[in-house]
Design a protein that fits this description.
With 255 residues, this protein is mostly beta strands. It contains two helices and eleven strands. It has helices spanning 6-25, 251-254, and strands spanning 29-45, 50-62, 66-80, 85-96, 107-122, 125-143, 146-166, 177-189, 198-210, 215-227, 233-249. The longest helix has 20 residues, at 6-25. The radius of gyration is 19 Å and the shape is globular. The mean pLDDT is 90.
Length: 255
């Protein structure tokens, strides 16, 4: 796959910034919360063409350690178009823990998803990008303690930009540190979306430590700016994010 040009990357970052600032300029009610985001992410390659994706997430609700807000289990089958480009088809189960609109029950959500992901190297620096399409089926709420029949539905398109700068002259190798800049833009669309085509923007910055050839840990600060379905209400989340990554290539053992 051809490398994405820098002007195109700049355009996408500008688009992300435009959505972010436009939403911010229209703020009527903004809720500021502090959370912890924990995640385990695994990509395993079984052969020259096939692999798998798996990740698990748990997020606190507010004030860093006050209850839980969201839990996610996601899995998928990956087809390798080539060594740097891959397509994944998967399913995710999302549990929205009790919140203002459903104080005594959790709200389940089913998310089939499709993703095109590609990697680029610039010397010792690395860049990863993906486009992900999700179909969101969220159970409707009757009252504080009861789920209603049926589900709401909408599409979500996500663009993720991830850039890694090694802090060691040896590059990205075991026992070495890197610096990560990551931004992800979420866009809603569908018949049931009225006020919040802009869903959210997630920005992350922080260090990465390469534990081994397969494992690394990333931790740092993340800002998540969300426009709710009401349109005039926003959430500004300041999160401490800790993610553990496993990237396993079984084809190396076969070779």
């Amino acid at each position: 796959m051809k490398r994405i040009s820098k002007p195109f990357i700049i355009f996408l970052l500008c688009l992300s910034t435009w959505f972010y600032t436009t939403a911010g300029a229209q703020v009527k009610q903004t809720e500021n919360v502090n959370q912890i985001w924990l995640g385990y992410l695994n990509q395993t390659r079984f052969s020259s063409k096939w692999g798998m994706w798996a990740d698990v997430h748990l997020r606190t609700k507010e004030n860093f350690v006050n209850n839980f807000s969201t839990g996610i289990i996601r899995a998928g089958i990956t087809y390798y178009i080539n060594d740097v480009t891959k397509f994944t088809l998967g399913y995710a189960y999302v549990n929205h823990f009790p919140a203002a609109a459903h104080k005594k029950i959790s709200q389940p959500e089913h998310r089939p998803w499709q993703q095109l992901q590609w990697h680029t190297k610039y010397g010792k620096k690395r860049m990863m990008q993906w486009f992900r399409l999700e179909e969101r089926y969220r159970r409707k709420i009757l009252n504080d303690s009861t789920l209603a029949g049926g589900r709401s539905f909408n599409w979500k398109l996500r663009y993720n930009f991830w850039y890694e700068i090694p802090l060691s002259q040896k590059g990205i190798v075991p026992k070495a540190w890197s610096f990560i800049v990551n931004d992800e833009l979420h866009i809603n669309f569908g018949k049931q979306i009225v006020n919040n085509y802009f869903d959210q923007n997630r920005f992350f910055i922080g260090p990465k430590y390469q534990l081994s050839e397969k494992n690394n840990i990333q931790f740092g600060y993340s800002n998540i700016f969300i426009q709710t379905a009401a349109g005039n209400k926003y959430r500004n989340i300041n999160a401490a994010r800790i993610f553990f990554f496993q990237n396993i290539d079984a084809t190396k053992k076969i070779k």
